[in-house]
Amino acid sequence: MAEIVKFIYVIIIFFSLLLVSMEVDGCTGDIECKRKMWCPSPSKPMCLYPMCVCAIIKIIVK
Q1: Strand partners, 45
Q2: Who wins on pLDDT, 37 or 59?
Q3: Domain layout of the chain by residue ranges
């Protein structure tokens, strides 16, 4: 019985470490996001640390 509980704990720890290592894929700059994702026009891929998002950039000229 104790071996089964230890085995379950080991499996839980293993999967939690695996999930954490998969989530570390964040962005560091806009250029990286342009390579990773596509955004519909008029939005552009931008890095809002730690993830890439599609954002609309408006430039106001006076």
Answers
A1: 54
A2: 37
A3: 2-56
Please determine, for residue 24, whether its predicted confidence score (pLDDT) is greater than 60.
no
CA 54, CA 33: separation in Å to the nearest integer?
Answer: 9
Please tell me the predicted confidence (pLDDT) of residue 20.
58
pLDDT recorded at residue 26: 73
For the whole prediction, is pTM greater than 0.85?
no
* Interior angle at CA 25, CA 23 and CA 28, nearest 5: 135
Is the distance from CB of 49 to CB of 26 less than 8 angstroms? yes
Distance CA 42, CA 59 (A): 12
Largest CA distance in the chain: 75
